[in-house]
Amino acid sequence: MRAAFAAALALGACGALAQAPAGPEKSNMELVGSDALQGRSAYQPVVQKQGKRWILYVGHHGGRSMNPLSGQDEYNGTSILDVTDPAKPVPLAHIPGEPGAGESGGAQMVRVCDGATLPHADKSKVYMLRTFGNSAHEIWDVTDPAKPRLLTNVVNKLKGTHKNWWECDTGIAYLVSGVGGWRTRRMTLVYDLSDPARPRFIREFGLPGQQAGAKGESPTELHGPISTGPKGNRVYFGYGTDKAGILQIVDRDKLLNGPKEPTDANLRYPEVGRLELPPTNGAHTTFPVLGMDVAEFAKDAGGSKRDFAVIVDESLVNECQEPRQMVWIADITAESKPFNISSYTVPEASGNFCSRGGRFGSHSSNESMAPVYYKRVVFIAFFNAGVRALDIRDPYHPKEIGYYIPAVSEKTDKRCVGTGAAERCKVAIQTNNVEVDERGYIYIVDRANTGLHILQLTGEARKAANFP
To answer: Which residue, of 32, 263, 299, 378, has the greatest Cβ tally within 10 A?
Structure first.
């Protein structure tokens, strides 16, 4: 029945038959629970333990849909679900976002911090930081996740936002933004949000040549940072999406306390190293994996403990109409001279992915550094190839140990290439982002409106992750 529906939907979309699998495709991963997310295109999932409950926050791309909780037709924004029982996710609230479609509206990015951890917050509260489309960053009180309340607007009148990072132990936030005068759509505004009710601006930051008044070609725009906080004293910035990628390693203390006027010299000052990717590949996610014991080098006189970064490009174009975007692992032990040591991609022929419709290629990795998977397994969202579990215990030879590609549903949207009479459209899974929680559950969300899937590892993959 599902197969017939999917085929008929694809045929009717643009007159071109798309062969969608009848059910999920999987290896060493099983579905635990799911939710349609009201048929909204989804970007970032974040899981937060609140008391005895586990709460999932999901940022959405632009668009609009009916919210059964309110009975209103609402612009896509932020969904909040109780996933304490991952087999039965319970929708609690949806907060509308900025009007607009796709990348032009919604509230794609979300981060959550507990007030008990933030240095100057109300210790009884829980706070959510989110983008409001491309124009603003907001903080919400989500202490009662079913009744979110807007607390403050951190900054507005922006021309771009994206993948923020918020240090819950210090309150420092790195807000991907576009501000007037800067020559790029996305750079960094650094704020102290240790008291979420009273945001304090620290500085603007970006690559030399992006700031106002610079000459020549502006470097590629920021995609997002990941910070290790004061203990690690590093921030890993990823620039570029599907081309001209840059991994930039920044001294956090120098970034926060160094000279702040955005001159070329001051923007270079905090940088301790960078790795520039080829013109055909980007750096959507730059996930640090630090202090790894490499078994192969255990008997060597030195070098068995090393630092790495998992760099994930983002595919942007449907049906392989661009160079393959994939995963790279860089050795960053010598920070001033990082270098690539290995790569990974899903073999196209394993599922004829270029002809399935939609994007095929990598997008993002999980970002949680919880011990449950850290230094052993990373999860990669691969659009129409679903989510992939990658064993990185030997980072020089990463190995796929499991995958899950959800089945299309009646909510799954079509993806098209070409124009006019040459246009063809297919209904395809578009696994967009992935995150894990401390219990080991894996959360994937879909760009093409297929919703949320909560997964767990099984078989050999579970053993690789050191589960009993």
So the answer is: 378
